[in-house]
Amino acid sequence: QVQLVESGGGLVQAGGSLRLSCAASGRTFSIYAMGWFRQPPGKEREFVAVISWNGASTYYQDSVKGRFTISRDNAKNTVYLQMNSLKPEDTAVYYCAADRTSWRVRLVTHTAEFGYWGQGTQVTVSS
Predict the structure, then answer these.
(1) How far is Cα 7 from Cα 25, in angstroms, rounded to an integer?
(2) What is the mean pLDDT of residues 29-33?
(3) Cβ neighbours of residue 52 closer than 8 Å, sequence gap 6 or more
(4) Fewest CB atoms within 10 A around its CB: which of 60, 96, 114, 127?
(5) Cβ(9)–Cβ(83) under 8 Å?
(6) For the purposes of burial, counting CB atoms within 10 Å of the CB of 89, is it exposed (0-12), middle (13-18) or buried (19 or more)?
(7) Mean pLDDT across the stretch 55-70?
(8) pLDDT tens, 44-54?
(9) Looking at residue 2, what is its pLDDT?
């Protein structure tokens, strides 16, 4: 079993920045890829970013490339999402998730590939 707890959400004006954190416990964090997803109001959950188990590889949704940065600190069992130049369309509940497969070489983006989820943190961007 693994527990994921997100923090860092809030209300910010367009153009502002937020840094989300996701603290993991309960299993060996460092051998699993980690992802961030979001669910805008009235829409389905969507992929945002993913980072490999060792932090060497990352992949982003096109709409956040150049604005968001995913990173991880395996010593602290924590993954981060730095969000800059925020737009109103970034408003959503943001979730972190752990890959269900260890040591995965190929990064995955589908929700079904992630076996553990946090409770989510709200990000609201005002115009």
Answers:
(1) 15
(2) 90
(3) 33, 58, 104, 105, 107
(4) 127
(5) no
(6) exposed
(7) 97
(8) 999 999 999 99
(9) 82
